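In response to reviewer comment 3 from the previous cycle, which asked for concrete evidence that the modeling workflow produces usable outputs, we include below a single protein chain processed end to end. The sequence was submitted unchanged, and the resulting structure tokens are shown without manual editing.
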Amino acid sequence: MRGIKGFIAGTLVSRVLGLVREAAIAYLLGAHDAADAFYAAMRIPMLLRDMVAENVVQTAFIPSFVEARERFKSSESFLSAVVLLLGLAVSLLTLLGIILAPWFVKLITWGFPPEKMALTIDLTRLIFPLIILVSASAIASGLLNTRRHFFVPALSPAFLNLGTVLLAAGAGFCFRDMTGKAVILTLGTLVGGALQLLFQFPFLRGFRMGRPDFRHPSIKSFGKLLIPVLVSTGFSRLTLLVNTLIASFLGTGAVAYLNYAFRIMQLPLGLFGVGIATVVLPGMAERAARNVLPDEDLSSGEAASLFFTAPAAVFIITAAQPIIQLLFGRGSFSLADSFYSAEALILYTLGVPGISLSRVYLNYMFALKKTSEPNISFLLSAATNIALCLALAPIMGFAGLALATGISGWAQAIYLRWRTPLSPEGAGRLILILGIAGVSYILPWIFLARMNPWLSVSAEMVIGTGAYLGLTHLAGFGFTKRLFRRG
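The workflow returned the following structure tokens.
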């Protein structure tokens, strides 16, 4: 688990700036048509970014690069081949995205009126080149992670958010109409993508690229992992497109409410869920390359994921309304918008521990180059999500989409854990941690709920976290001591 503190520190800065970015967008666009168009336009490029840049790098590139370095001692030629292949693929993908944007957008926003759909198409074309920038940035982050350098890659998304924030400040002064503001915010995201890539360049010293060897043995390993990774993550991302499609029929603000809530839910998920899975992956890959089962990494990753995400989820669920109000409650963002966004946030956050555990289990599978279990898990999650969306949306509206995401995250986690060599003791540990987290945060919330939002959120965080650390220490969880240990 070495490196988790650096990753958490960098991710915390990035996520806080991400919330500042969302607050700026909420101030300028609120939950009006332009906000729905902006977030719908971001959907396809961001989904492709997740599939091509983040998932391919984390689950296919890192294990294959470590194999090339440890087993074949020829990582330079492998790296050059991957960079060329990935560069060609994402460039072609970007060109097709710009050309086919009208069809993509209509596919996921049938419920939008013509003017809103036209704006969404324009913004989608404008943002598509971001895929090239974030793909290059993801390769840089993956390389640094293989050397146990986690802080810089975790901090780099802060610059993506910074670009949007800087141009958002200018948009507020230069434009009064919502369309102009949405265009400037989109350009700011592109500027931020360039800043994210440039920030990592100075830290890549020592990595060399040789003559590309497309017949390198690790290229074959990369290819064997690549297709299943794209297929499995494609199932996962399909659910987000279906959610957007259904939300487009649920009236003005539905897409925006879900997005504001989703962004806050990403804070604990990025800090702890993705963070812990990212930190354990290089160790898993190195052991697998030496034909050693990384079961110890899997066990420690599961324990750490539960320890951190359970209290974070309980805190956000109990404090959802004041959190939304504090972050977004100004400018074009109304009080009603905060209530609707908080409703979605509570239901999204129910799935945070499950989604986080899935990331650890998936990295274990991919480190061992197992692909059938991840594919089945993503198919199960997607089927559960889509079925629940169709069943719950007519009853609960946009909130049903958030609940479907939370439940499907747990469905994937339960299946994946069943397919690992972990003992059943983890289920009891989960129940114990959730119980401790509930006592630690719910009791303070009962007495603090009617206070000023700033005071209630701050007091619940301090009191709840102190109680949680104390109770977990008494219960014998070693993470409490290790959390404050140097090194």
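The longest helix spans residues 33-70. We consider this sufficient to address the reviewer's concern, and the full set will be provided in the supplementary archive.
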